């Protein structure tokens, strides 16, 4: 049964807290990474046989396997995948950045170049539920950014095959190569390369605690998108909302994971009571009822505030991954929302729209990190270089000041570099 709290009874830290992993994930992952670095494909094969229970002749997915996977799906779902991909592409194309040049000073050009990361690795988990949506969300922005090489890694099943929906999505999105490998060993292989796996410059995509820890440990050798925690949703609702709908939307995230968090923040005691009752009606109807039950009982919360303004303040303090603003005029509230990964406005905008089809990205900051980070976007797959050009005359105007600045920092080589060209001329 979900617990109901007065806003005064809870701190932000208490709401965001998750259980600690009893396993030494850090030590195990460090050993895996070291083994992959030293032994490459041989270590990768050993881990695949140990954890995925399959011995593979090749970890590279063939064109025939892609075609077979796509053909195995019904036409309706193939069309849904293509339409979802088109929506994601349409939204993310608006994020394309251009370089610029500043030329308003005579003899001086200052600018910025925007170039794609050359090699990107996308991790897609296997687990209890296939996630073709994650394939689209991670690969399509990279393609739009112009990344020339995108490798996808995903674990094989015991039959040595990858879920066909995942392969079909990867083909639609435009992956250049797909590797049958999972877990922390896949992250290590993407970061350091093996005889078969091409090393990449950045790794993105969700995963379990071992995958997240591996991304943490290879950061610096490669870039990463984020260290994602369990899924979260906050429904910000007033007394006009339908409790059946509110409960259904909360459960859309609770069924993800036992550690997932589904929270209702409201100024209506009546709505709070009705949603609590409705959750008990709906949970037994779910295919993943045991997971949703554990999530709601441990991490689910209903928080009652004395005013709706205080409810908004609580949302901003929590900085949720997903936020549903369920009021009649959500745009009046939007300007008050400072911290959230993705904001679903109004009573007809359920969170799964963003998960699958609308076009916004579902790779989002969790655990309060929306206070300082953003959804996955085209920006995650580009890098920027500044450039500058001075004519001799333009440098001569500034050389003395650069020289003096450097001397104040006691960097005499810097100082001389600014004026040495003119010393040769006797100036």
Report strand order across the widest sheet: 1-11-10-9-12-13
> What share of the residues does DSSP label as strand, in percent?
15-25%
Q: Count helical runs.
A: 16
Low-confidence stretches: none
- The H/E string reads EHHHHEEEHEHEHEHEEHEHHEHEHEHEHH
Decide which structural class fits the backbone.
alpha/beta
Mean pLDDT: 95
Q: Portion of residues in helices?
A: 40-55%
| First-last Cα distance | 83 Å
CA-atom Rg in angstroms: 26 Å
| Number of E-type strands | 14
How would the global form be characterised?
A: globular
Largest sheet: number of strands, sense, barrel closure: 6 strands, parallel
Describe the model.
With 427 residues, this protein is an alpha/beta fold. The protein is built from 16 helices and 14 strands. Strands 1-11-10-9-12-13 form a six-stranded parallel beta sheet, with helices on both faces. A five-stranded parallel beta sheet has the order 6-5-4-7-8, sandwiched between helices. It has a three-stranded antiparallel beta sheet with strand order 2-3-14. Strand 4, helix 5 and strand 5 form a beta-alpha-beta unit. The chain is globular and about 90 Å long.
């Amino acid at each position: 049964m979900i617990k109901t709290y007065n806003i005064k009874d809870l701190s932000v830290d208490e709401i965001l807290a998750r259980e600690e992993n009893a396993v030494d994930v850090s030590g195990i992952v460090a050993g895996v990474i070291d083994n992959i670095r030293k032994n490459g494909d041989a270590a990768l094969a050993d881990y695949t046989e140990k954890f995925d229970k399959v011995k593979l002749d090749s970890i590279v997915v063939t064109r025939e396997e892609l075609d077979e996977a796509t053909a195995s799906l019904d036409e309706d779902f193939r069309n849904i995948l293509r339409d979802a991909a088109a929506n994601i592409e349409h939204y993310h194309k608006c994020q394309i950045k251009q370089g610029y040049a500043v030329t308003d000073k005579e003899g001086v050009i200052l600018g910025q170049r925007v170039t794609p990361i050359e090699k990107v690795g996308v991790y897609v988990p296997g687990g209890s539920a296939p996630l073709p949506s994650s394939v689209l969300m991670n690969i399509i922005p990279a393609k739009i950014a112009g990344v020339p090489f995108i490798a996808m890694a995903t674990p094989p099943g015991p039959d040595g095959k990858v879920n066909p929906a995942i392969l079909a999505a990867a083909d639609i999105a435009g992956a250049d190569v797909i590797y049958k490998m999972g877990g922390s060993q896949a992250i290590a292989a993407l970061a350091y390369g093996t005889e078969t796996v091409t090393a990449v410059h950045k790794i993105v995509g969700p995963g379990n605690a071992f995958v997240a820890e591996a991304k943490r440990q290879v950061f610096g050798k490669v870039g990463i998108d984020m260290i994602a925690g369990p899924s979260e949703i906050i429904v910000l609702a007033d007394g006009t909302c339908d409790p059946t709908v509110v409960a259904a939307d909360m459960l859309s995230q609770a069924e993800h994971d036992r550690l997932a968090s589904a929270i209702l923040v409201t100024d209506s005691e009546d709505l709070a009571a009705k949603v609590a009752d409705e959750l008990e009606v709906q949970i037994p109807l779910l295919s993943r009822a045991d997971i949703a039950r554990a999530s709601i009982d441990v991490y689910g919360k209903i928080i009652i505030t004395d005013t709706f303004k205080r409810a908004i303040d609580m949302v901003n303090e929590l900085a949720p991954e997903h936020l549903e603003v369920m009021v009649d005029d959500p745009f009046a509230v939007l300007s008050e929302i400072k911290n959230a990964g993705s904001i679903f406005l109004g009573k007809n905008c359920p969170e799964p729209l963003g998960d699958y089809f609308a076009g916004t990205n579902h790779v989002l900051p969790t655990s309060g990190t929306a206070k300082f980070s953003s959804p996955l976007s085209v920006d995650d797959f580009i890098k920027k270089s500044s450039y500058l050009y001075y004519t001799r005359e333009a440098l001569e105007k500034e050389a003395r000041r650069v020289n003096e600045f450097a001397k104040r920092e006691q960097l005499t080589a810097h100082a001389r570099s600014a004026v040495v060209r003119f010393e040769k001329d006797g100036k």
